[in-house]
C-alpha cells in the first residue's frame, strides 16, 4: 500500500496526539505541507501513531492530508522513543518520503533527531520557514548562531529531509472538501528498552498568548513592580494578553508560558506592543508574523525600531500612562 | 557505574556580538572566550553524584578545537576522573549527526563498557537538542530527554522523570542508556582552588580521527547531511516609523493609524 508511492518524494508529517486529540502543531504542519505540495502532485501523508486513534484521521484529512498512515497498538498509546523511532524508521524505508516534519514539542524534539540518526539523514531544528524548490529540495530557515542572522539549511543528498517546527510558526487551515484515505499499517514493535511506570498529568495553565489579538510585552527595560502594573492595566484595557522577553522571565516578572521568542511562544497577533525590549532576533522571530508592531523604548538606537511599524522613543513610565488615558477616553466616547 | 558525560564548549554569550562572519559564510570566532555549555555542568554534577553513591568512574568527552582543552580542566576540577578531547581538522564544520558520530566513536573506543551517558538537554549556541538522541541511536542504546530527576533504583535501573507536554513521565530505564538533563536536575558544584590544583594530575587525552578510525567522509563538514546554503540578515519589512511631537500628540497619532485603530474598535 505504501509501495505505490515510492516514485514520489512525498511530504510526511508526524502527528502527535494526546488522549485522542491531535496536537495543534501537527495540524499546522499538515497545512504547511499542503501548501508546499501545491500543484506538484506530491502527497501529504500524516503518520498517525497511537492506540484507538482512527477517529482522528478525518480531522487530519480535513486539515490537508491526502493519506493517513494509521499505526495502532496498545503499546503505542503514549509517546516513547524506543517504539516510535524504529516504527517510523520502518515506515520511512518503505514509503521513502522526500521530507518529514515534526512539531518541536518535547516528544517531537526527542523523536525527530533519533529517527534522522537511524535513517542516516539530516535534521534541522526549530525551522521558522520551509520552502520547497522545484527539484524537491527543502529550504529550511533557522535563526543562525547567536540569532543575529538567518541560515538556510539544505539536506542535498540524504532523504528524507527532516525538520522540526515550533508550535504557532505556521497557520492551520481547513479543507472541508478535501479527500483522503486511511492506510492501516501493522506496526512491528521491537523489544522495549524501558518501562513507562507512570505518566503524571500536570495541567499547565494554557498560555493565552498564541490566540490573543493584542499582545503587550515587557522586556528588561521594565524593571519595577509599578512598571508591570502599568503593562497589566494596558493589557486589560486592550483585552489582550501579557508577555515578555527572556530577561522579563529571568527577573521573575512573567511566567515561562508568557515568554515570547525563539525559546518561548511564537505569536501572530493583530497588534503587538513591545515595551522596554531591544529587539534581539531571538525575541523578534517570535513576533515576526504580528500584523502591526508598536514599540516604546527610551533608546532611539534600539534595533527594535527598525523591526517595528510605529515607534515612540521615550520612557515607558511617561508614555504608557498617556496611552492608557487616551484609550480610556476613547472607550468612554 | 561507568558514566560518560558529553560536554560542549560554547562561545560565552556576552561575546556573541563580536563573532564575525567570514566571506565564505563561516564563523570567525578566534579570540572568543569558550565556556562549558551551562546545562552540561548539570550533567557532570549528576554523574559525580552517581559516582559518590555507587562508585565507578566519570569520564568527560568533548568534541571541539584544541582551544577547548583549558575548559576541560574545569570539568576535571569539578571531579571528573578523565577527559577526552576529540579534536581533528576533519571534525570541523560538523552538524549534529556528524558530531554525534564522533562522540559515539570516542565512547565506544575508550569506554566500551559504559553504563550511562549523560548529555545536556541543549547547547546555548545552536540549541538543537539533537546530539543526545542521535548519540544514543549510534550507540544503540535507549534514550530519555529532558530529565529533571534521576535516581538509581534496584538492579542498577534508573528511575527517571522527564518533561512532557502535559505533565511528566516516570520511566524505569535499564542500563546501558543515555539521558539528557535539564538545569532543574541539580545545582552544579563550583570547584575550589584546591580542586583546581589537584586536577592538574589528571589526564586530558586528545583523540584524532586516526585514533578513532573515522574516515573524513563520515565526520565534520563532509560527513554532515545538512549544509548551510545561505546566511542572511532578516529583511526589514516594517514601516519603521518614529512618531514625533509631544507624548500626547504621538499617542494620538498612533491611535489613528489604520492597523492600530482597527484593532481597538
Ligand atoms: C539560546 C538563547 C535563546 C533565547 N531565546 C529568547 C527568546 O525566546 N525570547 C527572548 O525574548 N529572548 C531570548 N533570548 C535572549 C535574547 O538574546 C536577548 O538577550 C533578549 O531578547 C533581550 O531582552 P530585552 O530586549 O528585554 O532586554 P535588553 O536587550 O536588555 O533591552 C532592554 C531595552 O529596554 C530599553 N529601556 C530601558 N529602560 C527603559 C525605559 N525606562 N523605558 C523604555 N525603554 C527602556 C532599553 O533601551 C533596551 O533597548 C535567548 C538567548 C539565547 C542565548
Ligand atoms: N561538540 C560536542 N562535544 C561534546 N558534547 C556535545 C557536543 N555537542 C553537543 N554535545 C552534547 O549534546 C548536548 C545537546 O547539544 P545540541 O544538540 O547542540 O543542543 C549538549 O548539551 C552536550 O551534552
* Radius of gyration of chain A, taken over Cα atoms and rounded to an integer in Å: 22 Å
What is the quaternary state of this protein?
heterodimer
Calculate the mean pLDDT score of chain A and round it. Answer: 92
Give me the count of strands of chain A. 18
Number of domains of chain B: 1
CATH architecture of chain B: 3-Layer(aba) Sandwich
Mean pLDDT of chain B: 92
Distance between the termini of chain B: 65 Å
Uncertain spans of chain A? none
Shape of chain A: elongated
What is the CATH superfamily label of the largest domain in chain A? HUPs
Distance between the termini of chain A: 65 Å
Envelope shape of chain B: globular
Low-confidence stretches of chain B: none
* Lateral strand order in the biggest sheet of chain A: 7-11-6-1-4-5-12
- Find the count of extended strands of chain B (DSSP E, 2+ residues): 15
* Largest sheet properties of chain B: 9 strands, mixed
Kindly provide the name of the CATH class of chain B: Alpha Beta
Q: What's the CATH superfamily of chain B, by name?
A: HUPs
Summed up:
Chain A is α/β, with parallel strands linked by helices. Chain A has 8 helices and 18 strands. In chain A, helix 3 crosses helix 4 and helix 5 packs parallel to helix 8.
Could you explain how this protein is built, in words?
The complex is a heterodimer of chains A (333) and B (265). Chain A is of the alpha/beta class and 333 residues long. Chain A has two domains: 3-185, HUPs (Rossmann fold), CATH 3.40.50; 209-332, TPP-binding domain (Rossmann fold). Chain A has eight helices and 18 strands. Chain A has helices spanning 24-37, 57-62, 81-95, 106-119, 225-237, 246-250, 281-284, 316-332; strands at 11-15, 17-18, 21-22, 44-50, 67-72, 99-103, 123-127, 129-132, 138-143, 150-154, 161-165, 181-185, 194-201, 214-218, 241-244, 271-275, 292-297, 310-313. In chain A, 56% of the residues are buried. The model of chain A has no long low-confidence stretch (mean pLDDT 92). Chain B has 265 residues and is α/β, with parallel strands linked by helices. Chain B has a single domain (2-218), classed as HUPs (Rossmann fold, 3-Layer(aba) Sandwich). Chain B is 29% helix and 28% strand. Chain B is built from eight helices and 15 strands. Chain B has helices at residues 38-54, 69-78, 96-110, 131-139, 193-198, 209-212, 247-256, 258-264, and strands at residues 2-6, 9-11, 20-21, 27-28, 34-36, 57-63, 82-86, 116-120, 142-152, 158-164, 167-173, 177-181, 204-207, 227-232, 241-242. In chain B, a hairpin with a 5-residue loop joins β9 and β10. In chain B, α3 packs across α4 (131-139). The model of chain B has no long low-confidence stretch (mean pLDDT 92). Chains A and B meet through α3, α4, β7, β10 and β13 of A and α3, α4, β9, β10 and β11 of B. The structure holds flavin-adenine dinucleotide (FAD) and adenosine monophosphate. The site of adenosine monophosphate (AMP) has 25 residues of chain B, from α1, β6, α3, β8 and α4.
Amino acid at each position: 500500500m505504501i509501495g505505490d508511492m515510492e516514485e514520489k518524494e512525498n511530504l510526511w508529517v508526524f502527528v502527535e496526539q494526546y488522549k485522542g486529540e491531535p496536537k495543534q502543531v501537527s495540524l499546522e504542519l499538515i497545512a504547511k505541507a499542503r501548501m508546499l505540495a501545491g500543484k506538484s502532485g506530491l502527497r501529504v501523508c500524516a503518520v498517525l501513531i497511537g492506540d484507538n486513534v482512527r477517529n482522528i484521521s478525518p480531522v487530519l484529512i480535513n486539515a490537508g492530508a491526502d493519506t493517513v498512515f494509521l499505526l495502532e497498538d496498545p503499546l503505542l498509546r503514549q509517546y516513547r522513543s524506543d517504539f516510535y523511532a524504529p516504527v517510523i524508521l520502518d515506515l520511512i524505508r518503505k514509503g521513502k518520503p522526500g521530507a518529514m516534519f515534526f512539531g518541536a514539542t518535547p516528544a517531537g524534539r526527542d523523536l525527530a533527531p533519533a529517527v534522522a540518526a537511524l535513517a542516516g539523514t539530516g535534521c534541522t531544528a526549530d525551522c521558522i520557514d520551509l520552502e520547497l524548490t522545484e527539484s524537491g529540495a527543502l529550504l529550511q530557515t533557522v535563526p543562525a548562531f547567536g540569532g543575529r542572522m538567518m541560515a538556510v539549511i539544505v539536506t542535498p543528498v540524504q532523504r528524507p529531509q527532516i525538520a522540526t517546527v515550533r508550535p504557532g510558526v505556521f497557520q492551520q487551515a481547513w479543507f472541508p472538501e478535501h479527500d483522503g484515505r486511511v492506510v492501516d499499517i501493522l506496526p512491528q514493535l521491537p523489544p522495549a528498552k524501558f518501562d513507562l511506570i507512570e505518566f503524571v498529568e500536570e495541567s499547565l495553565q494554557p498560555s493565552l498568548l498564541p490566540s490573543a489579538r493584542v499582545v503587550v510585552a515587557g522586556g528588561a527595560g521594565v524593571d519595577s513592580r509599578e512598571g508591570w502594573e502599568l503593562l497589566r492595566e494596558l493589557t486589560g484595557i486592550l483585552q489582550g494578553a501579557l508577555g515578555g522577553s527572556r530577561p522579563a522571565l529571568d527577573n521573575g516578572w512573567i511566567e515561562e508560558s508568557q515568554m515570547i521568542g525563539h525559546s518561548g511562544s511564537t505569536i501572530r497577533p493583530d497588534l503587538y506592543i513591545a515595551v522596554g525590549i531591544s529587539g534581539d532576533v531571538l525575541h523578534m522571530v517570535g513576533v515576526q508574523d504580528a500584523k502591526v508592531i508598536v514599540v516604546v523604548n527610551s533608546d532611539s538606537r534600539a534595533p527594535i525600531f527598525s523591526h517595528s511599524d510605529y515607534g515612540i522613543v521615550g520612557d515607558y513610565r511617561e508614555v504608557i500612562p498617556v496611552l492608557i488615558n487616551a484609550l480610556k477616553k476613547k472607550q468612554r466616547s | 557505574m561507568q558514566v560518560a558525560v558529553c560536554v560542549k564548549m560554547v562561545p560565552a554569550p556576552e561575546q556573541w556580538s563580536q563573532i564575525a562572519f567570514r566571506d565564505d559564510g563561516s564563523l570567525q570566532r578566534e579570540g572568543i572566550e569558550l565556556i562549558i555549555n551551562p546545562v552540561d555542568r548539570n550533567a557532570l554534577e549528576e554523574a559525580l553524584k552517581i559516582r559518590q553513591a555507587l562508585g565507578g568512574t566519570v569520564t568527560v568527552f568533548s568534541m571541539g578545537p584544541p582551544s577547548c582543552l583549558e575548559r576541560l580542566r574545569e570539568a576535571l576540577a569539578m571531579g571528573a576522573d578523565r577527559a577526552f578531547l576529540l579534536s581533528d581538522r576533519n571534525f570541523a564544520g560538523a552538524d549534529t549527526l556528524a558530531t554525534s558520530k564522533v562522540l559515539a566513536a570516542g565512547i565506544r573506543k575508550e569506554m566500551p563498557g559504559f553504563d550511562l551517558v549523560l548529555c545536556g538537554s541543549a547547547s546555548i549556541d545552536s540549541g538543537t537538542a539533537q546530539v543526545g538522541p542521535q548519540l544514543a541511536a549510534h550507540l544503540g542504546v535507549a534514550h530519555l530527554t529532558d530529565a529533571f530527576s534521576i535516581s538509581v533504583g534496584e538492579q542498577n535501573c534508573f528511575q527517571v522523570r522527564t518533561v512532557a507536554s502535559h505533565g511528566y513521565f516516570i520511566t524505569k530505564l535499564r542500563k546501558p542508556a543515555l539521558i539528557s538533563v535539564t538545569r532543574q536536575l541539580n545545582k552544579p558544584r563550583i570547584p575550589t582552588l584546591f580542586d583546581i590544583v589537584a586536577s592538574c594530575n589528571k589526564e586530558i587525552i586528545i583523540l584524532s580521527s586516526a585514533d578513532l578510525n573515522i574516515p573524513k567522509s563520515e565526520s565534520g563538514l563532509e560527513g554532515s547531511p545538512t549544509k548551510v546554503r545561505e546566511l542572511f540578515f532578516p529583511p526589514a519589512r516594517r514601516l519603521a516609523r518614529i512618531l514625533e511631537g509631544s507624548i500626547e500628540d504621538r499617542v494620538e497619532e498612533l491611535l489613528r493609524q489604520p492597523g492600530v485603530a482597527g484593532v481597538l474598535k
